[in-house]
Amino acid sequence: MNNLGKKVFSLIKKVPIIGDLLLAANGYVLLGDKSFSKSPAPIQKWKFIFKDVFFALICGAFAATGFCYFGVSDVNASGLIQDFTPGFLGISVGIYALVFVVPTLVSKESFLKLKSTMKSISFNMSYPISALIFILLISVFTEHFPANKYTNFINFSLLIYSFVLVMEVVTYVTYVGRAIVTRRIKELEENSD
C-alpha cells in the first residue's frame, strides 16, 4: 500500500462512526490480522463485503422496481429497517456475548488448535453489528425523504443487507460451534481409549 493510501486510511478512521465502521470492516476482511488498524486491506480482500453489498443492491433494485410497477407507494421501507434492525442487533449482540463463553468451554489444546478461528471472532462479529448500526442511522435520515423509486431502492437495499449481515453472524457462529464441538468430541473419544 502506498503512502497516500495509508494517509487516507488514517484520516478516514478518525471520522466518528464511519472510522469505526472502516476499522471493523478492515479487520473483518483481514480475518483478524493485527495490521487492521495500521493499513487498509488490499482491494481483493474486500470481495466478501462487495459481493454482499452487490447482492443487496440487486435485490433492492428488484424490490423498488416491483413496487413501482404495481403502483405501491405507501411502503415505508425505512420504517421496516427501524422496526427490524433493533431486533437484528439484539440477536447479534446476544450471539456475540455467547462467543466469549465458547473459549471457556474447550480445553487449552483445542483452543490452541482453533487459534486462527478464535483470533478472527471479534471482527467477524463486530463488522456486522457495526454495519447494522450504520444502516439504522442511515434509515433515520432516509425516512424523511419522499417515498419514490430511489428512496425505496436505497431502503430496500439496506434492509436486505441487514438480513445478509444477520445471516453471516448466524452462519459464522454455527461453523465455530461445529468446529469446537467436533474437536471436543474427538478429545473425549481419544481420552476414552
Structural features:
193 residues; 77% helix; globular
Helices and strands in order, then pairings?
Layout: H1 3-12, H2 18-29, H3 47-69, H4 77-101, H5 108-113, H6 115-142, H7 149-192
Helix pairs in contact: 2-6, 3-7, 4-6, 4-7, 6-7
Description:
The structure is a single chain. The protein has about 190 residues and is mainly α. The protein has seven helices and no strands. The longest helix has about 45 residues, at about 150-190.
Number of strands: 0
- Structural class, by secondary structure, is mainly alpha
Proportion in helices:
over 70%
Helix/strand order, N-terminal first: HHHHHHH
The whole-angstrom Rg is 20 Å
Largest β-sheet summary: none
Number of helices: 7
Give the overall form: globular
Mean pLDDT rating: 83
The amount of beta strand, in percent, is under 5%
Please state the oligomeric state of the protein chains shown: single chain
Model regions low in confidence, pLDDT < 50 over at least 5 residues: none
Separation, N- and C-terminal Cα atoms:
52 Å
